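Work Package 3 (structural annotation) set out to generate three-dimensional models for the target panel prioritized at the project kickoff. During this period the team completed the workflow that converts sequence records into discrete structure tokens, so that structures can be stored uniformly alongside our sequence database. As a representative example, we reproduce one entry of 168 residues exactly as it appears in the project archive.
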Amino acid sequence: MKRAADRSTALDSWDRWFGRMAMAACCIALGVGIGIWSATPSNTRFAGLIENAEALGMVQSGAEGRSGDYSFFVNRRYLWVVRHSTGQAQFYHVPETESSEQPLTKSRVYEIDKTTFPVDQVEFSVSERNLELYLWVTNPTTGKVRFLRARRDGGFDESPVIDPASEF
């Protein structure tokens, strides 16, 4: 009788252990599924734009350099589009819902200061701070830097020209 009781206790503990492991596996699978579902590109407007731009050779993925006239800087629901030949930039924002009531919003076209940042010498990069994208305009020849942020009204907040090269 003692063996049967020991065996049933062992089976009960095995069932509890197996149940906990199965529950943990289900929770992990659910978490992975939610993560994959939420990571799918809800900004299909950007995805199509970037794929078309890459197919046309207007943008080159990676840090090897650019192959076209445009650069696209995408992060979450934001997009900076820069046209190198004219020194212009524009900011796009995809709303949280993709309903037709809230269309894609875009800023006015920003003209780069061509005296401080000549078109043939300027480089662009993007950084994120507090979920806002900053477009950095740099001139590696002179060492001058400026950053800008798009406002909700379609305008831009721009920093004064920073000249860290004069510090050295």
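The mean pLDDT is 73.
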